[in-house]
Design brief:
By secondary structure, the chain is of the alpha/beta class. A 7-stranded parallel beta sheet has the order 3-2-1-4-5-6-11, with helices on both faces. The protein has a two-stranded parallel sheet with strand order 7-10. Strands 8-13 form a two-stranded parallel ribbon. Strand 1, helix 1 and strand 2 form a beta-alpha-beta unit. Helix 1 crosses helix 9, helix 3 packs parallel to helix 6 and helix 10 runs parallel beside helix 15. The radius of gyration is 20 Å and the shape is globular.
Length: 355
């Protein structure tokens, strides 16, 4: 039977890499977003407002996917609003597709805030579960929109009879413009600014992150796991962590990132230096750089998300995950983390997004 994919959030870091993976392996692939892009040959764009069921009904009238990949979320000011909005977007898509009876599998992407708690909790000293995080750990006894999204998928699966998988990446490293959580590009832009101005490439985060073990998720790796889980019988109805497969310390990686740009790295000096403050006045500088180097995106806010990078790098604890569960079931893809960053930096330069 032909495999027909619907990617919810196809213009994001995960969604765009997933689209490439699916198209490369012969899937018919629809990309759903509010403002779809048409820069990926073979991807069939679908424009709709995820919070408007009528808009979804119209947009998906002729789409009968066998597999749905939900990679989108919307940031709100409080966790209560995150729950209301982000559960609704999952529910709306699955409700509109329900009468078609075509869906065989739904894959939902959440993240490590499943274990850490939402932004407003872990950033203010919430107590997370012990590391390395394992999928069987219980939910935290706090509100979390990831849990609400999962519950919507579980309810729809019980109603419609499809299988499901939940995927929990750490920080995603990959290319996307206009993404809310984009550490790799944020650090590339910061390094480019440091090189242009002579400012030190200063470690912005905590001592715990500088010295502790960490891991990240290459967007290409999660794309492969999403496809694997949606087509592997043994992976049905399970949650999976997904990271590159290596551990590293930022005290090792930070100088390597600086070296790629030909600049000097400044490590942890006893003080946190939030990027949001460090880059607060750089919008005009970046616009000038973009003009001088003929870059394609002069708007700093569409490339860098320092607030999110600060949350990751400023954590007062080390964060890492266990990959044993999917490894035992046959998912053995591995990606060295330094290469994830270097590949991204090279792509950003090729696409004229950094000088």
């Amino acid at each position: 039977m032909d495999k027909i994919a619907l990617i919810v959030g196809a213009s994001g870091i995960i969604g765009s890499n997933l689209a490439r993976e699916l198209l490369a392996t012969g899937w018919t692939t629809y990309g759903l977003s509010r403002t779809p892009k048409d820069d990926l040959p073979g991807l069939r764009p679908v424009a709709a407002n995820l919070l408007d069921p009528a808009s979804l009904e119209t947009a998906l009238a002729d789409v009968k996917p066998t597999h749905v990949f939900i990679t989108s979320w919307m940031r709100n000011d409080t966790e209560a609003e995150n729950i209301r909005v982000n559960s609704a977007l999952v529910r709306n898509v699955l409700d509109v597709l329900s009468p078609k009876k075509s869906v065989q599998h739904v894959a939902l992407v959440t993240g490590l805030k499943h274990y850490l708690g939402p932004f407003e909790s872990y950033a203010k000293g919430g107590v997370p579960l012990p590391t390395p995080f394992r999928e069987e750990l219980p939910r935290l006894a706090i509100e979390n929109f990831y849990y609400a999204q999962e519950d919507e998928v579980f309810a729809a699966a019980a109603r419609d009879g499809f299988t499901w998988s939940v995927h929990r990446p750490h920080t995603i490293i990959g290319q996307a413009v206009g993404n809310l959580m984009n550490m790799g590009t944020t650090l590339a832009v910061y390094a480019s600014i440091c090189k242009a101005t002579g400012r030190p490439f200063q470690w912005p985060g905590s001592e715990a992150q500088w010295n502790g073990l960490s891991d990240v998720t290459d967007a290409r790796i999660i794309a492969k796991q999403l496809v694997w889980a949606s087509t592997t019988e043994a992976a049905a109805n399970q949650a999976f962590n997904i990271v590159n497969g290596d551990y590293f310390r930022w005290s090792w990686l930070w100088p390597r990132l600086a070296g790629w740009f030909g600049i000097e790295a400044a490590g942890f000096d006893g003080t946190i230096h939030p990027l949001e403050a460090e880059m607060a006045g750089d919008a005009d500088l970046w616009r000038d750089l973009a003009t001088r180097h003929q870059l394609t995106e002069p708007d700093l806010s569409r490339l860098a998300s320092p607030w999110h990078t600060d949350l990751d790098l400023g954590r007062p604890l080390e964060v890492m995950t266990d990959m044993s569960k999917s490894r035992k079931l046959g998912f053995t893809v591995y990606q060295p983390t330094d290469d994830s960053f270097f590949d991204l930096f090279a792509q950003l330069r090729t696409d004229r997004l950094i000088p």
